[in-house]
Amino acid sequence: YDETSKRFAAIVDKYPEYAKINLARYSLGLTQYRKGDLDKAQKTLSEIPQPERVGELGLASYLMADCILRQVPATVPEDALAAGKMEEQLKSSADLLEAFIGANPKDNQVADAIIKLGLCQQRLAALTSQPPDRAKMLAVARSTYEKLFTPEFKGIPQAAQAVFERAKVMA
């Protein structure tokens, strides 16, 4: 991936007016993502304008959200500053996932995006201190998981996970 990254970075730097520059950015971001350099991948992919994240560039929002989610702490932090950063990361990731789902409803990754969106919503609910607000956020997560109960998603593995996660938010 190192040589590929170098070549795409050279294209992006050298030819910013190139007609397919966003495809080069996407390819560079994807190689950075696969190498595990999540910060660079997120930065590179974020340079692709939101309206252009469809078709062959459709996974850009999904990958950006995944980069963010992989860097969010697994547990709720004790201090308010870290909790605020975690909340910001989860909201940003949720926004990107919603944008991906809305712009690419037939993509193969939509079911995964729905699961990740529900998990973001669950984790945001865990950060909420007021029980009525937490209940509302968990209801939103439940309705997100229920999107996978439609006939178009019948028989996919994510549907079983959605059943499990839905049960957790109802408990």
Describe the structure.
By secondary structure, this protein is mainly α. It has helices spanning 2-14, 21-35, 38-46, 59-71, 80-103, 110-127, 131-146, 157-170. Helix 4 packs antiparallel against helix 5 (80-103), helix 6 runs parallel beside helix 8 (157-170) and helix 7 (131-146) runs antiparallel to helix 8 (157-170).
Could you name the key traits of this structure?
171 residues, 8 helices
**Most strands sheet:** none
Strand content: under 5%
User: What's the overall geometry?
Assistant: globular
Structural class: mainly alpha
User: In sequence order, what are the helices and strands, one letter per element?
Assistant: HHHHHHHH
> Roughly what percent helix?
over 70%
| Overall mean pLDDT | 92
Please mark out the parts with pLDDT under 50 across 5 or more consecutive residues, or reply none: none
Q: From the alpha carbons, calculate the radius of gyration and give it in angstroms.
A: 18 Å
Number of contiguous helices:
8
Distance between the termini: 45 Å
Strands, count? 0
List the helices and strands and how they pair.
Blueprint: H1 2-14, H2 21-35, H3 38-46, H4 59-71, H5 80-103, H6 110-127, H7 131-146, H8 157-170
Helix pairs in contact: 1-2, 2-3, 3-4, 4-5, 5-6, 6-7, 6-8, 7-8
